[in-house]
Write a structure and sequence with these properties.
Oligomer: single chain
CATH architecture of the largest domain: Up-down Bundle
Number of helices: 18
Strand order of the largest sheet: 1-8-5-4-2-3
Strand content: 5-15%
CATH class of the largest domain: Mainly Alpha
Helix content: 40-55%
CATH superfamily of the largest domain: Dehydroquinate synthase-like - alpha domain
Distance between the termini: 48 Å
């Protein structure tokens, strides 16, 4: 048995996880910056629960609720300036992947006032980021347990990653996902499935991450098969999807992603497709590729899901909405630079290439 597994985030799970973590929060300092979007932190009850714990522990807080989907670096810079002004000792992110990723960036920027954008992405940080606490309200991103922040700069997604950006504490309470809309539940569920599958087929996948992926994939896949706009999303369903996404996040943390993720960024940036659905558009192509280059692993994958490959790919196509996307040949060619030299190609059985990516885009979108 061989493995190399590193995940330093303290994860506290359950419906009383925030209250149970009061002492841990107090150890981080007497003031904090709380980073949210406009809706989910409040609607889920997470912000109220946090505020109550902070009040009891006499920790002051400043709330910044200007984080949008696909968070802007400019918003993070604004929030970081406020955090520095208020002398925040730590940063709390509440929400889906966008506020959580933003919180990581804000923690780094607040600790390094005056840092320019190039220095930020190159991690030319004189000081370590402020301690980070992450509270997820969706079931898909895995951001709670990853050291990566994906931000939007001039319409293009860019990421910064490193062990400095791991959270000190993650609160894992499935009840906070209960107010997600149907469409958000679908997209985040697809994102979680992509994380588990892309990591599972990574050439670097080992015994620990293979185990976690085989735990995550059927949990999320069963949930995806149930998806209907009119369905009742019970607490049991929410819990299944949340913990499936958490296990998938641990796989993501260990092995990263394959080509569906950077290709998905192109759809999000240029066609407004939500991140999870955008990545899932390309997952059938990855699975067909893996069936050729990792046939034994594919057989095991299908046994774990108790299904066949056409059924998996049909479900992915129906939930991602791939048939609604169209492009011209000129548009596809304009993305060539985005496909060049991606590290994700080496994270794919049998590797992958820029030319294969261009052909895939033509197959899927050239109408």
């Amino acid at each position: 048995m061989n493995f190399d597994f590193y995940m330093p985030v303290r994860v506290v799970s359950g419906r009383t996880a925030l209250a149970d973590s009061a002492a841990q929060l107090k150890k981080l300092g007497d003031s904090c910056m709380v980073v949210t979007g406009k809706r989910s932190a409040k609607a889920s009850g997470a912000l109220d629960d946090l505020t109550e714990v902070l009040r009891r522990e006499k920790i002051s807080c400043t709330v910044y609720d200007g984080i949008t989907e696909n968070p802007l670096l400019s918003s993070c810079e604004e929030a970081a300036a406020l955090a520095a002004e208020k002398k925040a000792a730590f940063v709390v992110g509440i929400g889906g992947g966008s506020p959580l990723d933003a919180a990581k960036a804000i923690a780094a920027l607040a600790a390094n006032p005056g840092l320019d954008r190039e220095g930020f992405f190159q991690k030319a940080w004189k000081n370590p980021p402020l301690p980070i606490v992450l509270i997820g309200t969706t079931s898909g991103t895995g951001s709670e347990v990853s050291p990566t922040s994906v931000l939007t700069v001039d319409g293009v997604k860019k990421s910064v990653s490193g062990p400095e950006l791991y959270a000190s504490l993650a609160i894992a309470n499935p009840a906070y996902t209960g107010t997600m809309s149907y469409n958000t539940t679908v997209s985040t569920g697809l994102d979680a499935f992509c994380h588990a599958v892309e990591g599972y087929f990574s050439p670097a996948c080992d015994d620990i991450t293979g185990y976690l992926a085989e735990k995550a994939m059927p949990m999320v896949y069963r949930g995806l098969k149930m998806m209907r706009p009119e369905m009742e999303m019970t607490p049991a369903f929410r819990e299944q999807m949340y913990y499936g996404s958490l296990w998938a996040g641990l796989v993501l943390n260990a092995h990263g992603t394959s080509f569906p993720h950077p290709y998905g960024y192109v759809l999000t940036e240029n066609h407004g497709i939500p991140h999870g659905k955008a990545c899932a558009v390309f997952l059938p192509a990855l699975l067909l590729h893996c069936a050729q280059y990792a046939p034994e692993k594919m057989e095991r994958f299908l046994r774990v899901l108790d299904t066949d490959l056409p059924a998996v790919n049909q479900l992915l196509d129906s939930l991602s909405g791939v048939e609604r996307i169209s492009m011209t040949k000129e548009e596809i060619q304009s993305y060539r630079k985005r496909f060049t030299g991606l590290k994700h190609y080496a994270n794919t059985p049998g590797a992958y290439s820029e030319e294969q990516g261009l052909r895939l885009f033509e197959t899927l979108f050239l109408k």
